[in-house]
Design a protein that fits this description.
By secondary structure, the protein is mostly helical. Helix content is about 45%, strand content about 5%. It contains 21 helices and nine strands. It has a three-stranded antiparallel sheet with strand order 1-3-2. A two-stranded antiparallel sheet has the order 4-7. A two-stranded antiparallel sheet has the order 5-6. Strand 5 and strand 6 (about 120-125) form a beta hairpin. The radius of gyration is 24 Å and the shape is globular. Bound molecules: calcium ion (2 copies). The site of one calcium ion has 7 residues, from loops. The site of one calcium ion (CA) has 7 residues, from loops.
Length: about 450
């Protein structure tokens, strides 16, 4: 499905009749999905409803799921398994960091973003996910039998159940077999509870002792004995050779030139970045994963300082980072966690020239123009903010808009929006105006919603 700018999206359409009485669960899933902010978690765009359906618009992954991959290949080489596990574990560390327990980690819920060999793996399906608070033990029995942790079956569990499930996944990836198999669900659950499995099949003879060791540590029946994900990342089998912290020059330049965006500017950039393809932000993504020294899915200011220092900048580092710190702390890092989310990092490091792309700008304009009348008004903008859980008042939003409303009609037309985009580009670039596109885009256009309706739902 294409909506210009080569943007393809997946739409999961859920019949309202089917979820009757379970609407609160669906709402829980959406609330979780809209907060996800990590390279290895599916990107959520928005949700909308018509009389019969609720449609969830998400990133489209075309590379198939990990289960299909295993079925097709039998088993995967240890090196590849290692790369996959590293990514999955880092993504789940992030989830736990933001107090989300996935509860249904299994190969069918891991999709490859594309067919390309260096395609990214993405965790999907947050239907069973729940905001976890370590102090409140989870008790409901959910998930897929083969991947359930023993404590989930016996009741009273915590986020550690995700570690067990990843252990099962790792076992399966290395051997092509399930650690806990049986002819009935009861038989499988019984084996899990006693933690009975063996490295017996022929395929294990090819597997390193270190890999088996890690599987054993992840499949400890007692969650208290089980390895933590942070520990797993430094287990000899997963530990990466330490690499020099070297960021691409363009990323370093952006960090050095970073200028605090205003709230509306930041939101516009956030949306634009979501519309960019994985390839377009590949460098930034890799930089983020490299700079995130604690591997929690967040980048600290110290991490950024280290990256700049490693590049041996010529001008006084302190001066630069102190301004940067203030700018970042006051604007980008809106939740004041003292660390940047993935999207914050992208905003800070993006080469802003990439925003000067008429198709991308148009797509973003359409996104904000929720009622698709060709203008962004305060109500449109308020709705956009609501999708990210921001409850700014209509008054606040009007104030934000007025700054770009050059003809004072309380509406932002496409030309005015173009000026806003230009303002994101740090250096003044005379003559690059969106006015030149005016003739082709002034007509009120179909919103993202109606554009994607009627296409095959799929994910
Ligand atoms: Ca509008
Ligand atoms: Ca106006």
């Amino acid at each position: 499905m294409l909506i210009g700018h080569n943007l393809s999206v997946a739409i999961k359409s859920i019949s309202k009749d089917k979820v009757k009485g379970r609407l609160s669960l669906l709402k829980r899933e959406l609330d979780i999905m809209r907060t996800l902010d990590h390279p290895n978690l599916i990107k959520y765009y928005e949700a909308y409803e018509d009389e019969r359906y609720i449609h969830i618009v998400m990133e489209l992954c075309t590379g198939g799921d990990l289960l299909e991959t295993i079925m097709a290949m039998g088993s995967i080489g240890e090196r590849e398994v290692c790369a996959i596990m590293r990514k999955l574990i880092r993504a789940v560390v992030y989830l736990h960091e933001v107090n989300i327990t996935h509860r249904d980690l299994k190969p069918d819920n891991f999709l490859f973003s594309s067919q390309s060999p260096n395609s990214e793996i993405k965790i999907i399906d947050f239907g069973e996910s729940i905001k976890s608070n370590l102090l409140v033990p989870l008790t409901s029995f959910v998930g897929t039998p083969s991947y359930l942790a023993p404590e989930v079956i016996t009741g009273n569990y915590s986020p550690q159940c995700d570690i067990w499930s990843l252990g099962v996944v790792m076992f399966l990836l290395l051997s092509g077999e399930q650690p806990f198999d049986g002819s009935s669900k009861q038989e499988i659950l019984k084996k899990i509870v006693i933690g009975k499995y063996a490295f017996s099949s022929d395929s294990w003879s090819q597997v390193s002792d270190q890999a088996k060791d890690l599987v054993r540590l992840m499949l400890k029946p007692s969650p208290y004995d089980r390895i933590s994900l942070q520990e797993a990342l430094v287990h000899p089998w997963l530990l990466e050779e330490s690499q020099a912290l070297q960021l691409p020059l363009s990323v370093l330049h952006s960090i050095r030139r970073f200028k605090a965006p205003k709230k509306l500017q930041k939101e516009v950039m956030r949306v634009m970045l979501k519309f960019m393809s994985t390839e377009e932000i590949e460098d930034l993504k890799r930089s983020f994963l490299m700079v995130d020294s604690a591997k929690t899915g967040f980048v600290s200011i110290a991490d950024l300082e280290n990256a700049l220092a490693a590049a041996g900048l010529e001008f006084p580092l302190r001066a630069v980072t102190s301004t940067f710190y203030i700018d970042i702390a006051k604007s980008v890092d809106s939740e004041s966690r003292g660390k940047l989310k993935y999207s914050d990092f992208l905003i800070a490091t993006l080469d802003k020239k990439k925003l000067i792309d008429s198709e991308l700008v148009f797509l973003t304009f359409q996104y904000f123009d929720k009622d698709s009348d060709g203008y962004i008004n305060a109500r449109d903008l308020k709705r956009s903010f609501e999708t990210i859980g921001d409850s700014s008042s209509l008054e606040d939003v009007e104030k934000m808009l007025s700054e770009w409303d050059l003809d004072n009609n309380r509406l932002i037309d496409f030309q005015e929006f173009g000026r806003l985009i230009e303002s994101l580009h740090v250096r003044k670039s005379a003559g690059r105006s969106f006015a030149r596109n005016e003739t082709t885009v002034t007509a009120a256009t179909a919103p993202l919603d109606t554009d994607v309706q009627g296409t095959e739902a799929g994910k």
